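Rotation project, supervised by the postdoc (A.L.). Task for the rotation student: set up a whole-complex structure prediction and record inputs and outputs verbatim in this book. Inputs entered:
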Amino acid sequence: MQSRSLEIGVGLFLLAGLLALLLLALRVSGLSAASSGDTYKLYANFDNIAGLTVRAKVTMAGVTIGKVTAIDLDRDSYTGRVTMEVEKRVDNLPLDSTASILTAGLLGEKYIGISVGGEEDLLKDGSTIHDTQSSLVLEDLIGKFLMNSVNKESK
Amino acid sequence: MRRKSPIERIALLGRAGIDVVEAMGRSTLFLLSSLFGRSGLRNGGQLLIRQLYSVGVLSLPIIVVAGLFIGMVLALQGFNILTSYGSEQAVGQMVALTLLRELGPVVTGLLFAGRAGSALTAEIGNMKSTEQLSSLEMIGVDPLKYIIAPRLWAGFISMPLLATIFSVVGIWGGAMVAVDWLGVYEGSFWSNMQNSVEFTEDVLNGVIKSMVFAFVVTWIAVFQGYDCEPTSEGISRATTKTVVYASLAVLGLDFILTALMFGDL
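Outputs recorded:
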């Protein structure tokens, strides 16, 4: 009897440990079995990606439809080339859709927002979004604002 | 007291060095022979289960309570700091990453050294001083297989599990404080966490860390017990050594592992 309750205790312990790992996988790291496979790749070149990171969200109308998987520099055009993985079920994005880098809140994370274009041809796996809007760089904005006020004063 | 001649001092240094190297060699041989020696015992599973119970299951309460409080404190502190940047939703990310990458494995390692490691050392040391180990040998049972190996394996198996449970409980405690008491929006708490925590990068690396710590802590604890002087004073010294060495090893190895895993070295 003694050793039986011992075994039950150990069994529960092992189970609790494995359950904890599962919980970490699913609930905390958001790992889902269907995370890869049913996505397709899109590319977009931005003049400035400042602040965008790998794993940032790709959204459309505020709904997350994918994530950024890679960011590199396009050597020829001196632009930042962003690779995105978009869910397969969102396969009706027009070819002239716009990708812009947006900020969640004032100091929040950067993410990509896609707004729909009007063309009939659709973006396919591996196509590039040409119409892009770069990241908002606070320093540039302040710089422009200052220049404006200086110009006004000199007039 | 007579002044020592330089030659004698050098000899002393040499002796100390030889002692250290000898101890390391002994402990390695000890580890290898108890892990990989063929068990040959029919009730090996029973022994392992008994040790898993006393090393793992009985450590659960302290791990759960410590994890809960550490998670709660992290959430409180993180909230206070992050709220001044207006980004208190990130508290979930902070709590989860801190626990998974660092505090889970490290604090579990330290608590494990104190709770289970010291007990292992004292138990084995006591067996040695009351000559239970030699009597086992006398009746033809290898104490390495009968006493040591189940304890080593129990430590290796239970500590990673304890560390995962610690992290889960800590994250739950953090969620409780942040969401229920401090009013962080639940959805952004979890989604922020899920966006930033990567399974292989964070969760698995944490588990690997705790495996390494489990190995080192159990090894130190069991070896100190096996190698202690068979007197009551020797046992107390060995127990102290276990806790001190194991804690230092956990903290030192943590730095090295962190540098390897997250430091882009």
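Student's summary: Chain A touches chain B through 28 residues (CB under 8 Å).
Supervisor addendum: Strands of chain A lie at 39-46, 57-60, 63-74, 79-87, 98-103, 110-115, 128-129, 131-133.
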